[in-house]
Amino acid sequence: MLYCHKFLLKIWLGNSSLLFLQEDFGGGHPDPNLTYAKELVERMGLGKSSSNVEPPEFGAAADGDADRNMILGKRFFVTPSDSVAIIAANAVQSIPYFASGLKGVARSMPTSAALDVVANNLNLKFFEVPTGWKFFGNLMDAGMCSICGEESFGTGSDHIREKDGIWAVLAWLSIIAFKNKDNLGGDKLVTVEDIVRQHWATYGRHYYSRYDYENVDAGAAKELMANLVSMQSSLSDVNKLIKEIWSDVSEVVAADEFEYKDPVDGSVSKHQGI
């Protein structure tokens, strides 16, 4: 744990600092998310229990091999989809490695469209790829992508052909430092929450939810997915069905079964999600 001025940088490695020596991650779960990084979440003021201790301005978590990451501000959680979009939007100004510009950006299909809007506004090449870091790797090897990310807490750049949680944390610290360069020693810090809300004001806000279903019946799961594919032929029927359940919900405006043609090697990946 490292304290510096108003910041706290904590790379979450389970319940023990000896994680790399323990096969069970010290009894904790290695995933960096709001559920499993419970101690850090509480420390950042996002837990259910109240505390009189003032939370730090910045917190971060990584998994066992530090390739995935989670970014937190004081009483504020940054979604992975927003994180990669915000890094891309601020990279050229804030991170010396990108001072000459970005080659392009990419996200996985389940990740929100926040990065799409940044790419469109900054006139950057944009790629939507299936889940799996190899697709990002192909783009980076070909010099077509500088920054990429996925909603499962993976973020990376072309400095290495893999997601890099430590890099993502340092990228955020660089952005915070840049936003506060004219405010050194001042009382009002430009916080993580400020940066995210400024981003929303500029590019709009994207909402999404992730639910993980485990130990489900394989046959039933395939039947469910097949039904979703068939329903896409008539969105009017889909919306009618939804309205009968929840009258004031917004209408579904688009649906597809994702298919990806790799612009580098020409390979086609079908049935990559609904």
From TrEMBL:
Its cofactor is Mg(2+). InterPro entries: A-D-PHexomutase_a/b/a-I/II/III, A-D-PHexomutase_a/b/a-III, A-D-PHexomutase_C_sf, Alpha-D-phosphohexomutase_SF, PGM. GO terms for cellular component: cytosol. SUPFAM superfamilies: Phosphoglucomutase, C-terminal domain, Phosphoglucomutase, first 3 domains. It comes from the Eukaryota. GO terms for molecular function: metal ion binding; phosphoglucomutase activity. One of its GO terms (biological process) is carbohydrate metabolic process. Residues 81-201 form the Alpha-D-phosphohexomutase alpha/beta/alpha domain. Keywords: Isomerase, Magnesium, Metal-binding, Signal. Residues 1-16 form the signal peptide. PANTHER family: PHOSPHOGLUCOMUTASE, PHOSPHOHEXOMUTASE FAMILY MEMBER. Catalyzes the reversible isomerization of alpha-D-glucose 1-phosphate to alpha-D-glucose 6-phosphate. The mechanism proceeds via the intermediate compound alpha-D-glucose 1,6-bisphosphate. This enzyme participates in both the breakdown and synthesis of glucose. This is Alpha-D-phosphohexomutase alpha/beta/alpha domain-containing protein.
